[in-house]
Amino acid sequence: MIDLSLLGLSDKNSGAYTGSKSLQTSGKKIECSSPVDGKMIATVDSCDFDNYDKVVSLAQNAFVEWRLWPAPKRGEVVRQVGEALRENKLKLGKLVSYEMGKSLQEGYGEVQEMIDICDFAVGLSRQLYGLTMHSERPGHRMYEQWHPLGVVGIISAFNFPVAVWSWNAMLALVCGDVCVWKPSEKTPLSAIACQNIVSDIFSKNAVPEGVCSLVIGEKDLGERFANDTRISLVSATGSTKMGKAVAAAVGARLGRSLLELGGNNAIIITPDADLDVAMIGCVFGAVGTAGQRCTTTRRLIIHESIYETVKSKLTKAFMQLRIGNPLDENNHVGPLIDKGAVKSYLNAIDACKKEGGKFVVEGGVLEGEGYESGCYVKPTIAEAQPHFNIVQHETFAPILYLLKYNALEEAIQIQNGVPQGLSSSIMTLNLREAELFLSAQGSDCGIANVNIGTSGAEIGGAFGGEKDSGGGRESGSDAWRAYMRRQTNTINYSQTPALAQGIKFDL
Fold this sequence. Notes:
The chain is of the alpha/beta class and 507 residues long. The protein contains 13 helices and 23 strands. It has two domains: 16-261 and 470-488, Aldehyde Dehydrogenase, Chain A, domain 1 (3-Layer(aba) Sandwich); 265-450, Aldehyde Dehydrogenase, Chain A, domain 2. Strand 12, helix 9 (275-287) and strand 13 form a beta-alpha-beta unit. It comes from Segetibacter aerophilus.
């Protein structure tokens, strides 16, 4: 169990926070149980619409003041948030692991991502660069600058309960925006813990109440988010189905959306691969977070000449996986998030078998001592065909499909032949193969790797995908621009007016 008081939590928690203050909410009670042991952790009273409106209205008011703080001063506040996360890394990481079910090391790693993005954002606060352009008109100067958008709404998923929020929030904050966060109703306690950590820092720095807010609820609250004209940008992480609904609602009001959606990620293994390196990337990519990452490896596209060798190595590796309580660092794989996810896992196995798939490592639900929650499943491997309907879809579970190819162009076609386009990899020591994979005729994903797996992104690079994966970019590089509006400025410092394109207009 977790000592909730260490992170400012209790057995009963509010579902709305304006910053340092919690509101008395009257929505549906959310019961938070751990998939680790099935035990109740705490309850949260979800945010009703009246309190949601209070939170967003206060955020609007806070923006009027926050946008006037110099960006480096905003960055200093984010720096202190990073330091507070360092101090609370072990406590928060353990809560993430227990509430979500990912391994303890992955829980710590997720908090480390938050620390890293804080460091990145601090530097960014002094680098919100614009451009200058030469004007065609004498005595004129042109330049562009970037201004904060306003209220940024962040909808995050259960599989990364805290890191994805920080990717958005820390960048938005240094850009001068204010944030309202709606976490997954499956992992609200980790979100409240983050709110408590941030609020303490904000109070010490006299940050306006409402700059960083939290609302907790179910689908109807997310719909309210998407349709709210007061929210300038909706950044949503989740399924493709959810993303399409958000995009339609936000687009109808001509708002902005940043979408990070599902993945159906593949690794191509060529005859020139270092198989020792490849196995590590393939196995962790397939079973890390029990297959519940958007970057999870779901397909292995293997050259026919090494197919049997790779299959044998994978089978041996899967048989050695230790499945159990993720708080025990000796275990490799924890539980799925809930019994609904277990049902989806079993349905996918049945669907694959009906289409002709052959399972070389059988799946199933684990029972008995240590598995009382009913959420522990066996990572499984199936031989399949690229055209199988189930292979075309993302299943948030540790199911790995083996596909065979003859020529690299065929492998790339298989890799690209799914609706999703998030992450991809090739395992090869052949420079020509690697460069072809990274070229315009290669992977069509937002992320393309060589000799590493599909999961595990660094915050320095922009994160996101194409096609049904949403097209958004978060975290590093120039992803900060999504949280700002561009303005082009022209200044006439001459004593005579001049029109563009040489137009004459004499009075």
